[in-house]
Specification:
6 helices, alpha+beta, Nuclear Transport Factor 2, Chain: A, 5-stranded antiparallel sheet, about 190 residues
Length: about 190
């Protein structure tokens, strides 16, 4: 219900500051690439992951997403720890996409609206259909990098919030090195 209200509000609210800097068009192009890639299930895992990595590099601000997923713990990392975590986090995103392709098959996506909120963050609302189910997906553009995504919300669940809780639990149990090893091994959703 909350997600339907957010979507309705974004569709009906007047845009603040114009057409949201073309974010809708950028997300639409990204989704077209992801949909086309999701339809290539015959490709080897490594090739799907590599192609996704290219799309992610162009479309996601992975350092900002990784910081949001780690929360304030990211402030205490050494340069080497940060590099290791960012690499593991990026691999985690690739495996999550690959797992989605293997479990749900091809997706079909469309952008519904794009608006800049009062806080200056542009949000693009899309609808993604996979495995016969529709999902409302909100893409939050970075306030200081309006070309790329800083966070995603799927059916009302914010990725950064969900990941931060999971990652904090893992860090409490195994420390940062344990979290990095787990992400590198395919956790969550496979290994680790």
């Amino acid at each position: 219900m909350r997600n339907a209200l957010v979507t309705l509000g974004l569709l009906c609210a007047p845009a603040l500051g114009g057409p949201a800097d073309g974010a809708g068009e950028r997300i639409s192009a990204m989704l077209a690439g992801l949909d086309a890639l999701s339809d290539q299930a015959a490709l080897p895992d490594a090739e799907i992951a590599a192609r996704f990595a290219g799309i992610a590099k162009a479309s996601f601000n992975r350092p900002a997403m990784a910081r949001a997923a780690l929360g304030t713990a990211s402030d205490r990392l050494t340069r080497d720890q940060w590099a290791a975590f960012l690499a593991a986090y990026s691999a985690h995103l690739e495996r999550a996409f690959l797992r989605g392709v293997r479990e749900a098959g091809a997706s079909s996506s469309s952008v519904l609206a794009s608006r800049r909120g009062a806080d200056g963050v542009t949000v693009v609302v899309s609808r993604v259909t996979s495995a016969g189910r529709e999902h409302d997906v909100l893409w939050f553009m970075c306030p200081d990098d309006r070309q790329r995504v800083c966070d995603v919300e799927i059916d009302g669940i914010r990725a950064s919030t969900h990941q931060r809780a999971d990652f904090a639990d893992r860090m409490r149990a195994e420390g940062l090195d344990g979290l990095i090893r787990a992400l590198a091994a395919g956790w969550p959703g496979g290994g680790g």
